[in-house]
Design goal:
This protein is α+β, with helices and mostly antiparallel strands. The protein folds into two domains: 145 residues, Jelly Rolls (Sandwich); 100 residues, Orthogonal Bundle (Arc Repressor Mutant, subunit A), CATH 1.10.10. The chain is built from nine helices and nine strands. Helix 1 runs antiparallel to helix 2. The two termini are 25 Å apart. The relative contact order is 0.13. The model has no long low-confidence stretch (mean pLDDT 88). It comes from Oxalobacter aliiformigenes.
C-alpha cells in the first residue's frame, strides 16, 4: 500500500512493507530523504561510516546521497517514507537510527491508508487536517534522539580486512598478536591504528562487533546459548553481561522482541 502527497507543495510519500517484499523507497527522486519506521524485525545497515542497527519501534534515517546497504533480519515490517529535502531541515545530516515518540508510528499508520483521488504515483494535495497531522509527524522527528551505537570500520585496507573477517567469523577469537603475525605487522601498530580510526581499542571493537552479529542471530530466532557460543563466548553469563552493558537489556529480552 502506498500514498503520495504534497505537503506545503513538497513531495511526501509512504508505503508499507513486509517480508518477503524488499524495502523500497516510495519516492521518485534521487535527492529525496528516506526514512524507515520498523514495526518488527531488525535492520543492520552498512554505510560509509560503518555499521549500525535499527530495532522495532525505531526509525532508520537516510539523507540524500548517502551510500548504504541494508540487511533485514527476522520477519520485518514497517512503513517507508520519502520526503523532499525542504521538509527535513534540522534533521540529521548523516544516516542513523533514531528513537522517536509513539506519535510517529500512529501518524504513519494512519497516513498510509489515506485514499488518493489520482492514480498510483500521482502526488495529491492534502486537506488542512491531514496537513496538520503530517506537520506533527515532522515535529516529532525533530525531537527524536539519534542512537550512538555505530560500529566504525577502519579505513586502511589491512585493518579493514581484519575487521570484516571478525564480523564474518566472530567465533574465531584471534588475539591481536595472532593477527599481527598473520598480517606481518606489529601488534602495537594494529592497536594504535584501530584506536585512531574507530575510537575503540582492538578488544573493545571486537566485542561490539561480536554483539552486533549476536543481535542479528537473536532476531533470526536462535537461542541465547547457541548465539553466545557462535560469537566466541565460552561462558553464557559473560555474554549476557556484555550484551546488557552495551544495549541495556538481556539477550533473552531482546530475542522476545522478535517472537
Amino acid at each position: 500500500m502506498s500514498s503520495y502527497f504534497l505537503l506545503h507543495g513538497q513531495r511526501f510519500s509512504l508505503s508499507t512493507f513486509t517480508v518477503p517484499a524488499k524495502i523500497v523507497p516510495p519516492g521518485h527522486g534521487q535527492n529525496e530523504v528516506w526514512l524507515v519506521y520498523l514495526r518488527a524485525g531488525l535492520l543492520v545497515v552498512e554505510d560509509d561510516r560503518g555499521f549500525w542497527s535499527v530495532s522495532p519501534g525505531q526509525v532508520a534515517f537516510f539523507p540524500p546521497g548517502c551510500r548504504y546497504e541494508i540487511e533485514a533480519c527476522g520477519c520485518i515490517s514497517g512503513v517507508a517514507v520519502s520526503l523532499a529535502p525542504g521538509l527535513c531541515v534540522g534533521l540529521p545530516e548523516i544516516s542513523c537510527a533514531m528513537t522517536v515518540s509513539g506519535f510517529v508510528p500512529m501518524i504513519l499508520e494512519r497516513a498510509v491508508t489515506w485514499q488518493q483521488k489520482g492514480g498510483a504515483g500521482i502526488f495529491q494535495p492534502l486537506d488542512p487536517r491531514q496537513e496538520r497531522l503530517l506537520q506533527v509527524l515532522l515535529d516529532e522527528l525533530h525531537t527524536g534522539s539519534q542512537e550512538l551505537g555505530r560500529l566504525l570500520l577502519p579505513k586502511g585496507k589491512m585493518l579493514n580486512d581484519i575487521a570484516r573477517e571478525i564480523l564474518n567469523n566472530p567465533g574465531e577469537r584471534k588475539g591481536i598478536e595472532e593477527w599481527a603475525s598473520c598480517m606481518d605487522i606489529s601488534s602495537r601498530s594494529i592497536s594504535r591504528h584501530f584506536s585512531r580510526e574507530t575510537g575503540m581499542t582492538f578488544a573493545q571493537w571486537r566485542q561490539v562487533a561480536s554483539l552486533l552479529v549476536a543481535r542479528k542471530r537473536l532476531a533470526q530466532g536462535e537461542n541465547v546459548q547457541h548465539v553466545s557460543q557462535s560469537v566466541g563466548y565460552e561462558n553464557v553469563s559473560a555474554f549476557i553481561a556484555s550484551f546488557k552493558r552495551v544495549y541495556g537489556i538481556t539477550p533473552a529480552q531482546f530475542r522476545q522482541m522478535f517472537d
